Amino acid sequence: MSYNLKDLFTPQDKPIEKSLPSPSSGKATGKNTGIKNEEFLSSGSTGTYTISAADWYTAKPYGFKATFRNGGTAVMFLPISPSNLTISTNFATNVVATLYGTVEEHSEVRYYDITIAGTTGMAPRFIAPEVSIEPTSPLDPGTVHNTLRRKGRDTFAVANSIGAGGFFAKTLSIANQIKQKAADLLDGGVKAQSGISPENSGYVAFHNLYRFLLQHKKDTSGTGGTTEKRSSHPLTFFNYKDNNQYDVVVRGFTMVRSAENPMLYQYTIQLRGYNLKSNTSSTVDEDLNRRLIDLGLNGVDGSTILGNIKSISSQAKGIIGSFVGGINVLGR
Question: Each residue of 201-215: pLDDT tens digit?
Answer without folding.
Answer: 899 999 999 999 999
